Amino acid sequence: MNKYLPIILIIILIVTGALCWFYFGDKLISAINRRDQIVVYQPKTNQIVSSPLLVKGEARGTWYFEASFPVMLLDGNENELIVKPAQAIGEWMTENFVPFEVTLEFSTPTTETGTLVLKKDNPSGLPEYDDEIRIPVKFR
Questions:
Q1: CB burial class (10 A; 0-12, 13-18, 19+) of residue 46?
Q2: Is the distance from CB of 116 to CB of 139 less than 8 angstroms?
C-alpha cells in the first residue's frame, strides 16, 4: 500500500488541478488580461471621493472606440449617479497604453459607499467583447 501512495497523491493533484482550471480558468485569465488592459491612477480603491471626481489612468487602445469609453459611478445600491465617456489623451488607435481622463460631477448619494465602473467600449454589442473594471469608493 505504501508504494502506491505517491502515485495516488499525484493522480489526485492532477484531477484537482484540472477541475479547478475547468471551473475557474476563464475567470483567472480574464482578471490577468484586464490588469494588462487598463490601469486607474485616480481614484484609488476605497478612496473617499466627492464631486467633481477626476478619474485618470491608462488603457490599451483596444479599450477605446472613437477615442473614448464609458465610465459610470454607482451608489451602494447599484443606482447610476452619472455616466460619462473617458477621453483618450493622444493617439488611441494603437495596442499600447493611452492616457485617459474624465471628470464626473454628481449629487451626493444617500449611501456611504459606491462603485466606479470603467467599461471597455464595445460597439459590436457582442458579450464576448465586454469587459470592465470596478473600483469600490467611499463618499464624503
A1: exposed
A2: no
User: Checking DSSP bridges between strand 68-75 and strand 80-88, what pairing results, if any?
Assistant: antiparallel
Model confidence pTM above 0.85: no
Residue 111 DSSP one-character state = S
Q: Please write the tens of the pLDDT for every residue from 68-119.
A: 999 999 999 999 999 999 999 999 999 999 999 999 999 989 999 999 999 9
| CATH code reported for the domain at 39-139 | 2.60.40.10
Distance CA 109, CA 122 (A): 29
What is d(CA 123, CA 64) in angstroms, rounded to the nearest whole number? 10
Angle 47-111-56 (CA atoms, 0-180°, nearest 5)?
A: 30
Please tell me the distance from the alpha carbon of residue 31 to that of residue 130, in angstroms, as a whole number: 13
Residues 6 or more apart from 14 whose CB is under 8 A from it? none
